[in-house]
Amino acid sequence: MLTSTFVRDQWYVAAYADEIGPDLFARTILGEPLVLFRAEDGSPVALADRCVHRRFPLSQSRREGDTVVCGYHGFTYDTTGSCVFVPGQKRIPRTARVASYPVIERDSFIWVWIGDHERADENLIPRAPWLADAAYTTVHGMEPLAARYGLLVDNLLDLSHETYLHGGHIGTPEVAETPITTEVDDEKGIIYVSRHMADAACPPFYAESTGIKGRITRWQDIEYHPPCLYLLHSRIAPAGVLPNADGTDPDAFHVEVVYAITPETEHSTHDFWAVARDFAPDDDTVSDFLRDGNRTVVLQDVAALNVLEQVIAGEAEGYQELSINIDTGGLAARRILARMAADGERVREPA
Ligand code: FES
Ligand SMILES: [Fe+2]
């Protein structure tokens, strides 16, 4: 029997802020069906998407002011999930309520706490400030993945696959050739994986968006905040151009690639991706190119991981993978996720 790999008592990205409006919006997170909407004052609300009466999905019901009226027999819920009306009688049963979820809107995401409400401290939400920063221009999307979230974590922590899976887009030979350094902050539960290429071919993704001709200095600095948030700080500059001694870096192009990895079920995942850049801010051609390019790359990963999920489903118990140096970050992530799933304890201190 499959033991759950879900990590509860954590914040998860449920949606982009711009996906949630007055209309009822359904999304399943860690196996829990949620209905999301904005109350009349604009604040986001997340409730269990199952009427307490006969389970009708509230997401297929309707709003009436700040209440949700079940589309089956009219049980009516306020934004806290309490039932304020039942048909045919005055007395509302004490247990007539649906679960509500703590929700925070931050950095263009709607974060939802899955677990014990007492522990829902908003200071624990990891940050991706570029996504809502006027100094950056961001494109984003979300692709449904028919694979367990652990496969996406493996994928993102080992970018050597760019050379093979994403050749012609973001992969060049130097990515797989250049060794990584991996650091784990066990106390905060953050994993850092870096690959600094001093003299590399410029892949089309960056050549066309930055306009750089010729070879580049390409840095990839990953920061994974398990379970949900993955940041890739990408620095691209003409070969030989380095940051100044004081840390300023005016001659480089900076791209902040952000993924939110939100399990839907044990075997499916919401793959949120965003690309924020600090150059050509108003150039829609660059935005369109990066949006299409990154989506293409994400769909290449999705296709590969969907295959892996099927391979795993069909394999005999006890299959042993072989790991090498490139897997150091992914293995550290698995260890931390397993620990978080097992003890349900916070491993990250409030910021
Ligand atoms: S199922 Fe919702 S009111 Fe009956
Ligand atoms: Fe990839």
What's the layout of helices and strands?
Layout: E1 10-16, E2 25-29, E3 32-38, E4 44-48, E5 62-64, E6 67-69, E7 76-77, E8 83-85, E9 100-101, E10 103-106, E11 109-114, E12 137-145, H1 149-157, H2 161-165, H3 173-177, E13 181-185, E14 190-200, H4 204-210, E15 216-225, E16 229-238, E17 253-265, E18 268-277, H5 284-314, H6 328-343
Antiparallel strand pairs: 1-11, 2-3, 3-4, 4-9, 5-6, 6-7, 7-8, 10-11, 12-18, 13-14, 14-15, 15-16, 16-17, 17-18
Helix pairs in contact: 1-6, 4-5
Q: Uncertain runs with pLDDT below 50, 5 residues or more? A: 345-351
- Please write the string of helix (H) and strand (E) elements: EEEEEEEEEEEEHHHEEHEEEEHH
Fold-level CATH name of the largest domain: Naphthalene 1,2-dioxygenase Alpha Subunit, Chain A, domain 1
Strand order of the largest sheet: 12-18-17-16-15-14-13
Distance between the termini: 38 Å
| Main pleated sheet | 7 strands, antiparallel
Number of beta strands: 18
What's the number of domains?
Answer: 2
CATH architecture of the largest domain: Alpha-Beta Complex
* Beta strand %: 25-35%
Number of helices: 6
For the record, the CATH class of the largest domain is Alpha Beta
The average pLDDT is 95
Q: What compounds are bound to the protein?
A: FE2/S2 (inorganic) cluster, fe (ii) ion
Report the structural category: alpha+beta
Gyration radius, to the nearest Å? 22 Å
CATH superfamily of the largest domain: Naphthalene 1,2-dioxygenase Alpha Subunit, Chain A, domain 1
